[in-house]
Each structure stands twice: as C-alpha cells, then as structure tokens.
Design a protein that fits this description.
By secondary structure, the chain is an alpha/beta fold. It has a single domain, classed as 3-Layer(aba) Sandwich (Rossmann fold), CATH 3.40.50.880. The chain is built from seven helices and ten strands. The strands form two sheets. Strands 2-1-3-4-10-9-8-6 form an eight-stranded mixed beta sheet, sandwiched between helices. It has a two-stranded antiparallel ribbon with strand order 5-7. Strand 3, helix 2 and strand 4 form a beta-alpha-beta unit.
C-alpha cells in the first residue's frame, strides 16, 4: 500500500474530500501535527505523497514557529527529488517559499465562496473540474505569494492573482481550499471564530448558508480534480 503523509497545523483543517480519493487510490494516510510531532526526523522523500495543509500562521513566521524550518527542509528536499507533493493554503505558501518566492499579506483577506478564474493551462489541467460553471470555491486566507519560477499558473480570483500553480506534473499548490467539506467547515466556524468576528463583511450565518449552497458541489468536483491529479503523478 502506498503511503500518504499529511502535515497538519490545526486539528480541524484536515484532508477533507481528499480522504476518500486516497482510499480509492490505495493510499494509507498518516498525519503529523506541526508544533507537536518532531518534524526534524521526517524522511522527506520516503512518503509516496506529501500533503501540507492550511493553518492560521504565516509562512514567514519561523521566528515564532520554529517547526516551519523543518517544513522548509522537508519541502526543499522533496521538491528537489520531484516527489508528489500537494499543498493547501499555508501549504501552498510554504511550497512557494521553499521554491524561493516571496510570501506576504495580500491586498485584503479572502474568506468565503468565490469561483476560480482558470487560465488556459488550468482549463487543460485537472482544475478543469473546478471551473466556475462547475463549482464555486472556498477561500480562507490573508497572505499570498509570488508565482514560483518555472511553475505554471492555473487559477486566480479578483483579489488573489495566484490561486493555484503546478510545478512539473508532481507538485500542485492551492491557495484556496478544494478539499473543504460541508461537515468539516462547521469546525472551521468554531476554530476561526475570532478571525470571523474581526473580518468586516464576514459572519457565520452567511458562511453557513453559502456552504450549504456550494459545498456539496465542491466536494464532488474537488474530489474529481484531486483524483485526476493523483493519477497523473504515477
């Protein structure tokens, strides 16, 4: 059985709809908890798939969260070896930074449901399943990053130029959250309660209503996207 390793930064931001995809593809999934488990001991190239999940910290805050130094080491070695690697939100920012790009606060926070605008490359990639006529998209971030050299931009939104990129065929990074699920987002509404309360124009009732409207379709389309990409990495 192939091994998937997920680095998780907060307990409620898990692999979501990617879980059933991994099961169907014959992967066993193991989580490591950043800041709790010892990431310094991780063999960067051993897992068949590395997934780096989201979290409410900055990729540029290693002085506050020293475990980020270990994550950069893992990613740098992993990317150099061209091993399948997937990042969501903070995970995408860490991948971008490991590739030498700048990570910094965006023009404004992007929290809620906004469709992706796919590039031509995005429309011919697994992200075609995430086209705006097929699903909306869940966003939850304040930071952004410059597009890494040698990578291919796949998607944008009006407030975030770099929403998804591909490096070769085995590294896929999403600033957004195609893995989000309706049930799982109820935990986000609790865990991110302070951020929601301090973000103008964002509130739990509207997030919940929008999730009920768009979430089931994203679960289906996000699973299709991730399944197709995973098949292409083999």
């Amino acid at each position: 059985m192939q091994q998937a390793l997920a680095i998780r930064h907060v307990a409620f931001e898990d692999v979501g709809s990617l879980g059933p995809v991994l099961d169907s593809a014959g992967f066993s999934l193991r989580y490591l908890e950043a800041g709790y488990d010892d990431l310094a001991t991780v063999d960067a190239v051993a897992p068949d798939l590395l997934i780096v999940l989201g979290g409410p910290i900055g990729a540029y805050e290693a002085h506050l969260y020293p475990f980020l130094t270990d994550e950069f080491r893992i990613l740098e070695q992993r990317l150099k070896a061209d091993r399948p690697t997937l990042g969501f939100c903070l995970g995408a920012q860490l991948i971008a930074k490991a590739l030498g790009s700048r990570v910094y606060p965006g023009r404004r926070k992007e929290i809620g449901w906004i469709p992706l605008n796919l590039t031509a490359a995005g429309r011919s990639s697994p992200l075609a399943h995430l086209a705006p006529d097929r699903t909306s998209m869940l966003h939850w971030h304040g930071d952004t990053f410059d597009l890494p050299a040698g990578s291919t931009l796949l998607a944008s939104t009006p407030d975030c130029d770099n929403q998804a990129f591909l490096l070769g065929s085995r590294v896929l990074a999403f600033q957004c959250h195609p893995e989000a699920t309706v049930r799982g987002l109820e935990r986000w509404f609790i865990g991110h309660a302070c951020e929601i309360a301090n973000t103008p124009g964002v509130d739990v009732p509207q997030l919940r209503a929008d999730t009920a409207l768009h979430g089931p379709r994203l679960e289906r389309q996000g699973g299709l996207c991730l399944s197709e990409w995973l098949a292409q990495t083999r």
